[in-house]
Design goal:
The protein has helices at residues 14-19, 46-54, 66-78, 95-109, 125-139, 144-154, 168-172, 178-187, 210-224, 241-254, 267-273; strands at 2-7, 23-25, 28-31, 34-37, 59-61, 82-87, 115-119, 158-163, 189-195, 201-208, 232-237, 259-264, 278-283. By secondary structure, it is an alpha/beta fold. The protein folds into two domains: 2-154, Rossmann fold, CATH 3.40.50.10170; 157-289, Hypothetical Protein Tm841, Chain: A,domain 3 (2-Layer Sandwich). The mean pLDDT is 94.
Length: 290
């Protein structure tokens, strides 16, 4: 028997967490230096959070220490269960490294138990959709090793395409250069960004205006999506639900998916992308093809 675990970044709604009995390791974030913990995503007020940032509040994050993972993993091991942990991209956060450090320490303390950690090279619903897939495979009777292999083999197909309203947030957190940020702010240029093969955020195109950004994201979906009718597609937004709904309608036109899961960006990833960010997550031919 094993426990499926993930972290705040997976951006999963409470009903999904409950349905698959997923253990979630909470991440911390800061608003104007005030440390907060995302313990319950259902209690997170996305509108208030992103409105605060729009009004000048400074949001930031920090690497989760190994002790946080130990705090949540050790009780599971004491129950006699193994652990399959599916985490956020090591390319955008050192937190996955902390998870591995914690797992190594716990393996020494509980040699009779198995702990497998998987780096999704993804974040938000890019990570979350892998967790859901793991939950489905568990129900089908797959073991930890089989599930881990499946996710690792499918990582390169997880396409993550997004845009932001104000690229100064990405510049501030080291995702873009100062020059690129200034140009974008002055000319209303919207960057199109992706998660690359190493799980890092890179800009691959720029367009003028939000409407054109949404069209470009939908076009990438139509170009790359595989077996749309069989998959759950994810949309994450930072308090721009109208844009999320518009994007959902766009992708339903040519290649309607089995389901579109729409969520508000949790506060940790949201601190980096800022208000108005909008992302699409789907399985395609290759994330490197974006």
């Amino acid at each position: 028997m094993f426990k499926l675990m993930t972290d705040t970044s997976a951006n999963l709604e409470p009903n999904v967490i409950s349905a698959y009995d997923i253990g979630v390791i909470p991440f911390n974030y800061y608003l104007n230096g005030d440390e907060r913990t995302c313990m319950d995503i259902a209690a997170f007020d996305g509108k208030a959070y992103y409105d605060a940032i729009r009004s000048g509040a400074r949001a930031s994050t920090s690497q989760v220490p190994p002790q946080r993972y130990i705090e949540y993993m050790e009780p599971v091991l004491k129950q006699g269960l193994d652990i399959l942990f599916i985490g956020m991209s090591s390319g955008i956060s050192g937190s996955y490294s902390s998870a591995e450090t914690a797992a190594n320490e716990l393996r020494e303390q509980y040699p009779e138990r198995k702990i497998i950690t998987v780096d999704t090279l993804s974040a938000s619903l890019g990570e979350g959709l892998f967790v859901i897939r793991a939950g489905e495979m568990m129900r089908e009777g797959a073991d930890m090793e089989e599930i881990a292999r499946e996710i690792i083999n499918m990582r390169h197909k997880m396409c993550q395409v997004f845009t932001v309203d104000d690229i100064m947030h990405l510049r501030r957190t080291g995702r873009l250069s100062n020059i690129a940020a200034m140009i974008g702010s002055v000319l209303n240029i919207k960057p199109l960004l992706k998660g690359d093969g190493e799980g890092k955020i890179v800009c691959f195109q720029k367009v003028r205006g939000k409407k054109n950004a949404l069209k470009a994201i939908a076009a990438k979906y139509d170009e790359l999506v595989e077996n749309a009718a069989d998959q759950i597609v994810g949309i994450a937004h930072a308090d721009c639900s109208d844009d999320a709904a518009a994007l959902a309608e766009m992708i339903r036109v040519k290649n309607p998916p089995k389901q579109i899961m729409t969520v508000c960006y949790e506060p940790v990833t949201g601190a980096h992308v800022g208000p108005g960010a909008l992302a699409l997550f789907f399985m395609g031919s290759s994330r490197e093809a974006i």
